[in-house]
Amino acid sequence: MRNTAKLTTAVLAAGALTFGLSACGSSGSASDTSGPLVVAASPTPHAEILDYVKEHLAKKAGLDLEVKEFSDYTTQNPATEDGSVDANYFQNQPYLDDFNKKRGTHIVPVVTVHLEPLGLYSHKVKSADALKSGATIAVPNDSVNEARALKLLDTNGIITLKDGVGNEATPADITKNPKNLKFKELEAAQAPRSLDDVDAAVVNGNYAIEADLKPASDALVLESAKNNPYGNFLAVKEGNEDDPRVKKLAKLLTSAEVKKFIEDKYAGSVIASF
């Protein structure tokens, strides 16, 4: 992930009390809902979607919304758990399940908003078939997104994974690798920057967009939205699902206006999931 975040881990540790005060004591508390709803989000497309809601829909709905951008997405669940923010918007269910299990957090989904299709990109070849024997493919190094990347390659016949490997797949689970591909594990945010150094890279949709890649047209292969478990959702700490501010935001995030905004702005690179 990026080392430079609008809210770094250090700031989170030092500023949790400040955030609590700035949110009028509402963060992390299901009983006090008088202050603004503070939502952590990755910059693209999550914060952009929330900013649209804030600027065009929130006031009419009676929602005081504050958006906090986090470039390092690994810090958002801890911030939600400790009450530095009220909610977050950046992740999918397999990632959250893995995070809760490993970190002991208690974050739960509220409503699924969109899918960012994972894609394989290259500056060196124009098709997946053109990858040479022994080519190096960059993949995300967190367990869920690495498995997702390998499943993308498996679905498109580039490699074959052993049956039933699920969301914990690693290169060790590859049973057929006809091109003898090599895999370079990188932090997800670094994958687009690696494209000049590797033969191809599997890139998360949000990082592709930030790097001026157009998933709908630039990807050599791209995830399908059909029956896709990787939709991104609004999430809160368990117990805060019934916060009226959260319910208002959930309704706005799945409105016709937001769907049109996603379709117009991202042209298929981000897909509404409602």
Automatic annotation (TrEMBL):
Subcellular location as annotated: Membrane
Membrane topology listed for this record: Lipid-anchor
Keywords, in A-Z order: Lipoprotein, Membrane, Palmitate, Signal
InterPro entries: Lipoprotein_NlpA
Highest taxon in the source lineage: Bacteria
Family per record: Belongs to the nlpA lipoprotein family.
Stated name of the protein: Lipoprotein
Species assigned in the record: Streptomyces pseudovenezuelae
